[in-house]
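Q: Given only this backbone (335 positions), what sequence would you predict?
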């Protein structure tokens, strides 16, 4: 943890760049966050990796999504073929992508590029009972921790794919924050008015099974998806190994909420990428005191928002590392 002398030196390094003090606004705060995580006045941000965690949800069969459960498996194949929005953004930004099967319904997909960390072929129906056992939750957390801690990249983006996972994220966040689940439920993949009413009713039934407020560990066991639990562990593992974690949209922010409750120190590594159009995202961001970098009216997931924030993170580090100071450039500073 950087000490007070480091923080003083860091602020001086930012303030004495060839610019008026504070004129780069939030980019200066972003640079300071990166420097603090790396404990360096010359932070490096040149390599980023996106991990897309995929799994199915037992509650999907009840009709909480506009899309059939088969879409999870089909989209995994699409990611592996390079055809998803996340793939396109990642290629454009020179970001490595790995796709992780945490529990996609059906048999194991035979593709050597797919990272298998399957717990089971989807969770149980969380409307009727716990989504997973405590042992399954702990294994998913451990799987994610290992993935997040691996590699020598400087920043980690985490995305997800799983039909029904906005429902899962809504329930998990509602139980941790002690909010009514209705306050966090949105249209997800594009439900119409009747579909949204049905989704809210089903999730209220699910919420009634348990006390109004749960620990993060209990909320994940009762209502989580294997991809959300694995992502939670990955965020903790990445933070513990000194990586910047660029947090994506609603589902990723629900995972970040869990990670912060389970391992509070990991929060210092988190940078929130964007404000999703999904209804509950602003509520969770507010609870976390998070101010995301972008607001693009997006709600796709997959890590797309995190990827679009990566150039800002990269530029902020480069500003601190490469931008001249008044002294080094021979420029007169403020009087």
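A: Predicted residues:
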């Amino acid at each position: 943890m950087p000490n007070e002398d480091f923080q003083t030196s860091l602020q001086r390094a930012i303030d004495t760049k060839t610019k008026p003090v504070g004129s780069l606004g939030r980019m200066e705060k972003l640079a300071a966050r990166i420097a603090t995580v790396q404990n360096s006045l010359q932070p490096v941000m040149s390599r980023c990796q996106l991990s897309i965690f995929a799994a199915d949800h037992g509650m999907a069969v009840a009709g909480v999504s506009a899309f059939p459960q088969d879409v999870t498996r089909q989209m995994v194949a699409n990611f592996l073929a390079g055809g998803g929005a996340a793939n396109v953004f990642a290629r454009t930004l020179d970001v490595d992508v790995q796709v992780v099967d945490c529990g996609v319904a059906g048999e194991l997909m035979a593709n050597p590029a797919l990272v298998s960390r399957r717990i089971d072929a989807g969770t149980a129906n969380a409307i009727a009972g716990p989504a997973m056992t405590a042992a399954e939750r702990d294994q998913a957390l451990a799987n994610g921790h290992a993935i997040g801690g691996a590699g020598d990249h400087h920043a980690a983006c985490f995305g997800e794919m799983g039909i029904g996972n906005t429902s899962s994220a809504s329930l998990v966040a509602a139980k941790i924050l002690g909010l009514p689940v209705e306050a966090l439920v949105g249209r997800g993949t594009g439900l119409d008015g009747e579909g949204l009413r049905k989704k809210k009713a089903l999730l209220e039934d699910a919420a009634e099974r348990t006390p109004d407020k749960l620990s993060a560990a209990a909320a994940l066991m009762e209502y989580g998806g294997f991809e959300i639990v694995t992502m939670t562990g990955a965020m903790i593992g990445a933070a513990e190994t000194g990586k910047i974690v660029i947090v994506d949209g609603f589902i990723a922010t629900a995972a970040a909420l869990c990670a912060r409750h389970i391992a509070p120190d990991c929060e210092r590594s988190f940078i929130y990428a964007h404000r999703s159009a999904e209804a509950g995202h602003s509520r969770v961001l507010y609870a976390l005191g998070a101010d995301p970098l972008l607001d693009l009216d997006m709600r796709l997931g997959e890590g797309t928002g995190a990827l679009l924030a990566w150039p800002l993170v990269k530029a902020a580090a480069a500003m601190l590392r490469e931008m001249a100071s008044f002294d080094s450039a021979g420029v007169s500073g403020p009087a």
